[in-house]
Amino acid sequence: MAVGIFDSGLGGLTVWNKVQERLPEVDFVYLADSTHAPYGVRNADDIYDLTCAAVQRLFDAGCDLVILACNTASAAALRRMQEGWIPRDKRVLGVFVPLIEAMTERQWGDNSPPREVAVNHVALFATPATVASRAFQRELSFRAIGVDVEAQACGGVVDAIEEGDMILAEALVRSHVDALKRKMPDPDAAILGCTHYPLMQEAFQAALGAKVKVFSQAELVAESLADYLVRHPNMMGSGEAALLTTGDPARVSDRATQFLRRQITFTAA
Ligand code: DGL
User: Fold this and answer.
1) Residue-wise pLDDT tens digits, 43-79
2) Atom of ligand 1 nearest to the CA of 95
3) Is there a common fold for 2-95+218-268 and 97-215?
4) Which CATH class is domain 2-95+218-268?
């Protein structure tokens, strides 16, 4: 019984780690498309093609349900995939909606009209492709009114993390937070809209200041998935747990072990 988890690279491990903790009885097949990461600097057609190929690989591994633990794929490709590509007996879910539901204090499936919420000034940090898609603002507008969103495209951060250069990643985080603050000096909440960014959560929080509430996805997605599987137990699939990469397994395993501070072993996809 396995559920698929996909990311362009290592960022989705932040989600994989939490869903495993929350659902120890479920097996997960994680696929990192390391050869093609980062996705965030690619155009929407490219992201769509790569995401479909990766999700197909997870279907082939026995997964009926795939979580796109990648905001860039969720923002730039998911809607198009849902409009015609996904087979009827499979499901692909993105990571945006649980985050927006948490921020707007809504329950799963609450389809009531948009309303005023506690946060008014929201800073969104995401990849250039996610920011360009405006998917976050679109999903938010279905649920909340009166929220001012300022988005900052954080070029370079994913590359630095994938290379294991945390000093560069930290410097880039500080400069992107500075750039955001020039546009929105006093945000009351910040969204880490890329699954790589929780690896830099302390740097974001330090640069933003303690007063800013930082939302990141891993725990929220784990809760939403647990809830989904209670309602759809037939979507567990038939595959076996694995960590797959389209890149060099030894190199990807080293980086993953460094990030999660325990032995993580990838094999070739
Ligand atoms: N971690 C991904 C995201 O959530 C992808 C980043 C990238 O490949 O640029 O957006």
Assistant:
1) 999 999 999 999 999 999 999 999 999 999 999 999 9
2) 4
3) yes
4) alpha beta
